[in-house]
């Protein structure tokens, strides 16, 4: 078996594999900010995956993240290790390119867990009736224009930097101008060109799908929700992708009936020292100097396997080789710990950690449920 980088000449074959696997191609196999890997058996394309170049917020800092998607194996090649070979190659590729963590949406979780990915956070949609929206003061809105894009992105970034897991939507993986193609893009203008909030949505026969509802303050959020209520009579319900968890609270606090649809995405620490160095650790500022000696069990990422010491000192956190290996961590434990989705007690019960993980828990704290609001 041979695994190599996807070239422009391979796109037709890659699209065929994805079409057979998923019933459609979806986003292009090759686009700015995205690269691919192709597996060949007997000289024929047997499998493909793509890696999108993201930066993901953790602790207020951005960590380079490889978004793995479009993993497809030809039906005739299944059961021959193609998927595993692609993932192993992807791990090496991401490490070489400085992508210290990786996230993906798993259709077959067992395959990815065997390579060290595990639960990292949620991707959520809310569905609720439009005729029972919260009562809020109306806010002045207008359609977004090209000149609003920088301010609109700044509004999103200010939110995203406070929500673990959200991506920064930077180029080349994300073209901010693409938002103007949506049916509804309303902005709440502020002072000096600032955007106080915005709402983006598409309209179809199935109803109204809201991708972002973001406000810098409660008044703006309630005003945008009130604007959604103006669709009542035309539509019964709306679906809102949860970018800001505060919106969920505004709805639930008013006892509005709503349905939450939740998907779990998986996270993988590709390079532990690099990931720890890039992540923000707000709790480290008030922790006394301390260290925990780790023994990382990770056969698919040998570059960080073995004994590593995690050190907290002068408000910073680092990982260096050495130590006694008192706390044994499986590769699958690294993602849920890094994201804060699971503490050491849950990881121990799952058989992924042995030893005293109290310092690991204190570092991550309780920052809320990590979430993504972008598909790849």
UniProtKB/TrEMBL annotation:
Superkingdom of the organism of origin: Bacteria
Keywords from the named record: Transferase
InterPro entries per record: Acetyltransferase_Eis, Acyl_CoA_acyltransferase, Eis_dom, GNAT_dom, SCP2_sterol-bd_dom_sf
CDD domains the record matches: NAT_SF
Cross-referenced PROSITE patterns: GNAT
A Gene Ontology biological process term: aminoglycoside antibiotic catabolic process
GO MF term (any one): aminoglycoside N-acetyltransferase activity
Domain N-acetyltransferase, first and last residues per copy: 1-136
SUPFAM superfamilies, A to Z: Acyl-CoA N-acyltransferases (Nat), SCP-like
Protein name, UniProt field: Putative acetyltransferase
Species of the source: Saccharothrix saharensis
Species lineage: Bacteria, Bacillati, Actinomycetota, Actinomycetes, Pseudonocardiales
């Amino acid at each position: 078996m041979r695994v190599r980088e996807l070239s422009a000449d391979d796109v037709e074959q890659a699209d065929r594999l994805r079409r057979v696997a998923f019933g459609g191609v979806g986003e292009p196999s090759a686009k700015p900010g995205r690269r691919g890997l192709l597996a060949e058996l007997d000289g024929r394309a047997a499998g493909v995956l793509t890696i999108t170049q993201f930066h993901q917020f953790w602790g207020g800092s951005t960590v380079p993240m490889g978004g793995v998607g479009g993993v497809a194996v030809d039906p005739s090649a299944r059961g021959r290790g193609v998927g595993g070979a692609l993932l192993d190659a992807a791990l090496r590729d991401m490490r070489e390119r400085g992508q210290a963590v990786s996230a993906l949406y798993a259709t077959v979780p067992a395959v990815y867990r065997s390579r060290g990915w595990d639960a990292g956070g949620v991707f959520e949609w809310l569905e609720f009736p439009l005729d029972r929206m919260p009562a809020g003061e109306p806010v002045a809105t207008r359609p977004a224009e090209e000149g609003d894009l920088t301010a609109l992105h700044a509004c999103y970034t200010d939110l995203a930097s406070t929500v673990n897991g959200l991506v920064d939507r930077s180029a080349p993986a994300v073209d901010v101008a693409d938002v103007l193609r949506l049916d509804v893009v309303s902005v709440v203008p502020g002072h000096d060109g600032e955007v106080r909030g915005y709402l983006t949505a598409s309209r179809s026969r199935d109803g109204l799908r809201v991708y972002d509802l973001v406000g810098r303050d409660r008044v703006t959020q309630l005003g945008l929700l009130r604007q959604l209520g103006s669709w009542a009579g035309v539509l019964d319900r709306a679906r809102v992708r949860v970018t800001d968890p505060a919106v969920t609270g505004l709805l639930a606090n008013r006892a509005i009936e709503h349905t939450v649809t939740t998907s779990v995405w998986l996270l993988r620490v590709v390079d532990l020292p690099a990931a720890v160095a890039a992540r923000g650790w707000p709790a480290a500022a008030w922790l006394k100097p301390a260290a925990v000696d780790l023994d990382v069990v990770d056969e698919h990422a040998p570059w960080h396997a073995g004994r590593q010491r995690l050190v907290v000192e002068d408000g910073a956190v680092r990982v260096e080789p050495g130590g006694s290996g008192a706390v044994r961590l499986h590769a699958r434990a690294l993602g849920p710990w890094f994201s804060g989705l699971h503490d050491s007690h849950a990881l121990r019960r799952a058989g992924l950690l042995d030893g005293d993980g109290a310092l690991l828990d204190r570092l991550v704290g309780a920052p809320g449920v990590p979430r993504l609001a972008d598909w790849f």
